[in-house]
Amino acid sequence: MSNHSPLGSVGATQTAIGEELADVTKKHKRTAALRQWWNDRSRLQQWLMLLVVVALAYLLPVINPPLITTEPANDFAISCFNMALYALVALGLNVVVGQAGLLDLGYIGFFAVGAYVAALWTSSDSTFVHIPYLATLPLAMIVTVVFGIALGLPTLRLRGDYLAIVTLGFGEIIRLLATIIPGLKGNTGFQNLGRPPGTNADGEALFTASNGLPWYWLVVTIIIIVAVLLGNLERSRVGRAWIAIREDEDAAEIMGVPTFNFKLAAFGTGAAIGGLAGALMGGQVGFVNNQKFDVPTSILFLAAVVLGGRGNKVGVILGGAIVAYIPLRFTELAAYKYLIFGIVLVLLMIFRPQGLFPAKAHLLTYGSRIRRWVKKEQAPAQPEGGPPPGSAPPAPGGSTAQSTRRARKET
Amino acid sequence: MPEAQAPEQEFAINEEAAVAPEREIAVSEGEPLVEVTDLTVTFGGLTALDHVSFDIRRGEILGLIGPNGAGKTTCFNAMTGVYRASSGDVRLEGQTLLGKKKHQITRAGLARTFQNIRLFGEMSALENVAVGLDARHRTGMIGAMLRLPRHYREEKQIIERGMELLDFVGIADRALHPARDLPYGYQRRLEIARALATDPKLLCLDEPAAGFNPAEKEELMALIRTVRDEGYTVLLIEHDMKLVMGVTDRIVVLEFGKKIADDVPSAIQQDPAVIAAYLGEEADDVDA
Ligand SMILES: Nc1ncnc2c1ncn2[C@@H]1O[C@H](COP(=O)(O)OP(=O)(O)O)[C@@H](O)[C@H]1O
Ligand SMILES: [Mg+2]
């Protein structure tokens, strides 16, 4: 019983079909080559390169590169903060839309809840108990998770379009509640939100509305932490369940994935990150009212995810940054931003539906090791008397692992 | 290259373990593992499955055959919780499966493939199998985010057992290819590997050889026999009667939602009702 796989000739026809398929995917060759190159680097090289990128990201507002800068129209450090904020939002929304495949048009609602949490617990206009601003960040996450689950429980049994409509409604409801509920002060809003502690050498507060730099650094740091945690989720049972749900929800359920629970988990995770971003926005601006949480902004968040390449963390971070950057840099275009992003998205859907920076998600913790292992298994086949390199197509049905296994058994 | 020296034996395929089932089954060899009793499924006015009863004994390959539209897939769907049965019962090791959620039924031990392939297209072959393996895993949000020990244990199992299963069905050479880029035959076999990954007590295959040429079909049937030899119980849907004769231990024949025969292959071959049912079918095949 050494030959477990009695499937000889199937492979032959399949190799041919496989090559045809390879042709179809040629379009993605260039990104694939880049990815291949990246995967071939050693872990150390990857980390070093990441370190350089991260350092550059931190230094961006300090370098304030000409041409790229948004000045004189907009302070560059504050612009950078806004870009980072959108990147964080996109990262959160990506869990819901990109990974679990749930079309959420009301994500702004969670952002709003987060901002109001920061306002209610720190603003001088609020009658609530006051807590330190930094404590509102986890609090905002907890509160938005509650909102996320409250929205998800009744609605996540809906599919596709229905879910989109319901979440759109949720976003609007939050905005209207902010207008209607007297305690939320509608248009008047909350002033003087708290901010993180810390002073300069000359005794002035470090975190102010006019000094974007520390805020930017805070958000970049948070993005890194969130991205690492989300990466952990991605390469685990959770991430696989999310992608499986996105790919085929019924098949996922039948393969043993408790889809409802995992959709709820995606919703909650996304909500928490949205709330966190909202609280950060409130803190930096120092003012929260009901004017910033409209549907178009929610669509803009979605545009960031789609633009970046749904499902890809790095892609959506860049997508978020771009969506925030364009209107800040080209102020003359700011009034037309929805038009521009609308056109860009339409073009993107036609020519590059996978987004600007697509990448296949890696869903296994030991993925890089198995890649290396498979490569090694396939390489040394030649010295053992196999065909010379690059001669014939792989032997019919000849699974490499299988043949090595057979070889090992015989010895 | 700090990580290149990672002990590779850690992930070497374990040749001894093969892919035998990993969990205990309450009934012994030859005893009824699954009992389908008076199972009835209706769609509006159409009775797709009409009081069908049969047993599946542990360790056998049971063929479920019948002409197109006979209700074979419907029977699968009712057993695996996709369709709600209007009456009757499905029991696994004596426990009823009706009323359970689909993912619970899978974890209880009933795994299936789909007649029309339904893989997770963007995921690699190995990741598809990983989803099946995850059916028996328990890592949740916290465990995954903080990478608790159980997470590592389960991930390691995925690499080892996942590769073993891919190897077993003969597609390990494309373990890292996205499922949607795999050749058709590979996709069909990946479906089987993914179902086996859930460590089923009963493996249900819905026309696994559909779209294959005769030689490929024979090879797949041989694989199914190997699956049985590893210790799995198999329910095999196939509408090509000749094909199942050689592999199955017993055969249940459906026609228009009713069971018309239930016997060993040699007896089925002689059964006048079965021959009659398949006469029209043969004519259809000639037309097609
Ligand atoms: N979801 C459904 N809704 C309505 N009718 C269905 C559905 N699924 C199957 N049927 C009908 O039930 C009958 C049996 O179908 P099926 O179980 O797919 O047959 P088989 O798999 O034996 O070819 C057919 O007449 C089919 O049209
Ligand atoms: Mg069918």
From TrEMBL, chain A:
> Where does the record place it?
Cell membrane
Which keywords fit this entry according to its UniProt record? Cell membrane, Membrane, Transmembrane, Transmembrane helix
Tell me the segments the record calls region Disordered. 376-411
**Pfam families hit by this protein:** BPD_transp_2 (PF02653)
> Which Gene Ontology molecular function entries are recorded, alphabetically?
branched-chain amino acid transmembrane transporter activity
> Which residues lie in Pro residues bias regions?
385-396
Q: Which residues cross the membrane?
A: 47-64, 76-97, 102-121, 133-153, 162-184, 215-233, 264-287, 299-326, 333-351
**Entries under InterPro entries matching the protein:** ABC_transp_permease (IPR001851), LivM-like (IPR043428)
Per the record, the major location class is: membrane
PANTHER family registered for this protein in UniProt = HIGH-AFFINITY BRANCHED-CHAIN AMINO ACID TRANSPORT PROTEIN BRAE, HIGH-AFFINITY BRANCHED-CHAIN AMINO ACID TRANSPORT SYSTEM PERMEASE
Name of the protein described by the UniProt record: Branched-chain amino acid ABC transporter permease
From TrEMBL, chain B:
Is-annotated flag, keyword ATP-binding?
Answer: yes
On the tree of life, the source organism's domain of life is: Bacteria
Q: Which residues does the UniProt record annotate as the domain ABC transporter?
A: 34-281
Q: One GO CC annotation, please?
A: plasma membrane
InterPro entries, per the entry: AAA+_ATPase, ABC_AA/LPS_Transport, ABC_transporter-like_ATP-bd, BCA_ABC_TP_C, P-loop_NTPase
Extract the GO molecular function terms from the UniProt entry: ATP binding; ATP hydrolysis activity; L-isoleucine transmembrane transporter activity; L-phenylalanine transmembrane transporter activity; L-valine transmembrane transporter activity
Q: Which UniProt keywords apply?
A: ATP-binding, Nucleotide-binding, Transport
- Short name of one Pfam family for this protein? ABC_tran
From which residue to which does any coiled coil extend? none
In terms of PROSITE patterns, this protein maps to: ABC_TRANSPORTER_2 (PS50893)
Q: Set out the biological process GO terms recorded for this chain's protein.
A: D-alanine transmembrane transport; L-alanine transport; L-isoleucine import across plasma membrane; L-valine import across plasma membrane
* Protein name (Swiss-Prot/TrEMBL): ATP-binding cassette domain-containing protein
